[in-house]
Structures are given as structure tokens and as C-alpha cells.
Design a protein that fits this description.
- This protein is globular.
- By secondary structure, the protein is α+β, with helices and mostly antiparallel strands.
- 28% of the residues lie in helices and 55% in strands.
- A six-stranded mixed β-sheet has the order 2-1-6-5-4-3.
- It has one domain: Roll (Nuclear Transport Factor 2, Chain: A), CATH 3.10.450.
- The model has no long low-confidence stretch (mean pLDDT 96).
- It is built from three helices and six strands; from the N terminus they run ααββαββββ.
């Protein structure tokens, strides 16, 4: 498997997040997802989908850079630096963040099973 497969999955995930496309997000995110936010809070798949569905989270910008993929059997770890802007519960936010996502290949395709985001201060 080349890194391109995971980079395409990452791009599809970004497009779905920007469009709040819950159907695509549901397909790309594993039911057992555990995601740690930049504040240290844990988010489940259902909470993530609901934030997009309800409009509490609206993303206007997700500009990736510095993407890396490391393959480990039927899993891959992707790290991407991202310029992010949007609103959360009506409050605007923006900044540079680094996302780490663990993708696992299932019979239905590649799905995110875990992730973490940290704000990049420099």
C-alpha cells in the first residue's frame, strides 16, 4: 500500500468535515473512535457526527501541510499540520493545529479509529 491511499482518505475526510457531510463522515469514522481534542476532552464518533449535523461546529478552512504517513500492517498513522478556521457554538476560532489519526483497514475500507489534535504554537 502506498501512502497515497491514506492521503486520499485524509483529503476525503477534510472535504466531508468542511461540508458537514455526516454520511461520508459516518463511513470514514469507526464506531469505536476515540478522539482527543486540543483541550484534552475525549470525543466519540456520535458526538463528532452530532457536532457537524447540528451545526454547532462549522469549519470554513482546513488547509493541510507537512503530511506524513507511517504504515503498520493493516493500520496507518497519519500526521498533518493544518490551518483551521471556523466557529464552535457561534464563537469564531482559527489557528494552526497538528492532527494525528490512526486509520485501520476493515472489510468496508479504511476507517479512523483514534485521533488527537494539538495546537501548534510556533
Amino acid at each position: 500500500m502506498s501512502d497515497e491511499i491514506i492521503l486520499r482518505q485524509e483529503a476525503e475526510l477534510r472535504r466531508a468535515m468542511l461540508a458537514a457531510d455526516v454520511e461520508v463522515l459516518d463511513r470514514l469514522i469507526d464506531d469505536a473512535l476515540v478522539f482527543t481534542t486540543h483541550t484534552g476532552a475525549l470525543v466519540t464518533k456520535q458526538a463528532d457526527l452530532e457536532a457537524h449535523r447540528s451545526g454547532i461546529l462549522r469549519l470554513a478552512t482546513l488547509d493541510p501541510s507537512e503530511a506524513q504517513v507511517r504504515r503498520h500492517g493493516n493500520a496507518a498513522v497519519a500526521t498533518v499540520r493544518m490551518a483551521v478556521a471556523g466557529t464552535y457554538d457561534g464563537a469564531p476560532f482559527s489557528g494552526n493545529f497538528r492532527y494525528t489519526r490512526v486509520w485501520v483497514e476493515h472489510s468496508e475500507g479504511w476507517r479512523v479509529v483514534a485521533g488527537h489534535v494539538s495546537q501548534v504554537m510556533a
